[in-house]
Design brief:
The longest helix has 16 residues. This protein starts with a strand and ends in a 14-residue tail after the last helix. By secondary structure, the chain is α+β, with helices and mostly antiparallel strands. Strands 12-26-13-24-23-30 form a 6-stranded mixed barrel. The chain is extended. Helices cover 19% and strands 25% of the residues. Strand 23 and strand 24 form a beta hairpin. The chain contains 13 helices and 34 strands.
Length: 605
Amino acid sequence: MATKSKVYINGRLIGFHPNPAKLKTELIEKRRKNELSSHINISFDEKTNEVYINTDAGRIQRPVIVVKNGKPMFTAEHLQKIKNKEITWDKLLEEGVIEYIDAEEEENTLIAVDEESLTKEHTHIEIDGVGTLSVITSLIPYLEHDMGGKVLHGAKMFKQAQGINGINYNLRTDTEGYLLYYPQIPLVKSKSYDLLNLTKRPSNQNFVVAIMSYKGFNLLDAIVLNKGAVERGLGRSSYLRTYEAMETRYPGGQIDRFEIPKEDAVGYMGEEAYKSLGADGLANLESYADSKTVIAGRTSPPRFIEEVNEFELGEEKRRESSVTVRSGKPGNVDKIFITEAESGNKLVKIKLRSNMVPATGDKFSSKHGQKGVVGAIIPEEDMPFTAEGIRPDLILNPHSIPSRMTIGHLIEMLGGKASALDGRLIDGTPFSSESRESLGKILHSYGLRNDGKEAFYDGVTGEKIYGEIFTGIVAYRRLFHMSSHKIQARARGPVQILTRQPTEGKEKEGGLRFGEMEGETLIGHGAAMLLHEKLIEDSDKTVKLVCEKCGVIGVHDMIRNKKQCPLCNSTKVYPVEMSYGFKLLLDELKALGVLPKLKIADKVE
């Protein structure tokens, strides 16, 4: 029994087999002859002497061409039949020309990328090199020239790009959404771009990019934008946010009402807050609203049943419960949807639109993981220009390239330049793209250097800049990280009830956390008073009485005007400065049955 192989189906041991290699070969042959489903995968692990057969759902399979005796099963005859539409994909699958393999079966295969590298040892050949990539990753042009980490980085930012999320954006009520005003098809694109129909909903703009430093404004990962280009609509977008309000029905037949709250309503916000509202209590279309403006006026019945005096037969006092705009996200009322909720109550959705013009601190990225925030927006007349008078839209720091090894970014710049000159889109499909040499020839035929470099002139002085500067066109994306949505400051504001420390988060007017690491930097600098200011004065400083004898927190009897210790009734209690969070810790320890005691001594000057 020891020499026999274990056979598993979907992870369950179903028996043993004396010749596992033969079993694997026979099962694969049956699959290729269409006697078994194409979704079954078989693999044999020689180290563990186990055969794994997978038939379950959830496995990702990918198609490859079968190779026998160093020759692919897919022939020129098959290709011709496909062109003449005489044969389908399913037919190739049935004939065993193509098969689907999963991650486990792939472990025992040797797959050639192309026919040139094919040997007798190979078991399969790729249909196309791009087949090894995911849907998103295959959209990155000239990806094989980039470092793997940066490719993943670039792919991760696809979902953060602003663009057209759907043609019906006008009717959608997503909580949050972005709409790029002038999206463009990239000049250098892969075949996947067309297969996915992304030409109908692009999320890029083609930027003229120069790789040079500009007066320190594009230090490290910062970028410099051309103000003229921004004013012409570069990177401009809308931020759309939907707010919801409902007329809730309460037990007892009471109900909320959409209306302009009257002055006697509890929590009335003042006449100025309701200036945008119409007679129905909802904001007028295209009216401007910020955090102090009500966009849906609503009143609710009183929380508690009040005693009604027989002489006061007036209307009940209602509560103010209007919907306001989130702080830091003002905009114009774009659309109002009035409908009914599942409960049958009136439901209103109000969509706000904000015009987002690129500003300092906004994030842009190319498909190659070359992300950066705007360091400065320079007036067009001060931007460097070429001999033809072309001024770049974006200036990228040269130090962004060598350590990151994103050569694909540079080739895309060349391709974009060649595309603009030649008036056609360049194929940048990974592993089967137009070569760098052919792009150089296009540039050369239009009288430019084939390496993409050009002479630049200083926009301020008009002098020629020493050395040539690499310039081209590359598809950039504006990401949804915008400084206007992240900027946060606070001097005074609300505090938490439990710890008396400032609240957390921008929406709650919170402070910025001065954490352990920040505190340690101050310790390292010997800035003890600044540390004290940040962690005590600016946070939750409190003064508590401490008993000199017992070391417990004392009490101040306000009625008898007496300060004493609750344990030993001693009057030797002294005020001690401490963090309220520390006082809370002492209380929580007492609740656990631990009595902490403080040792106090005179302050040494």
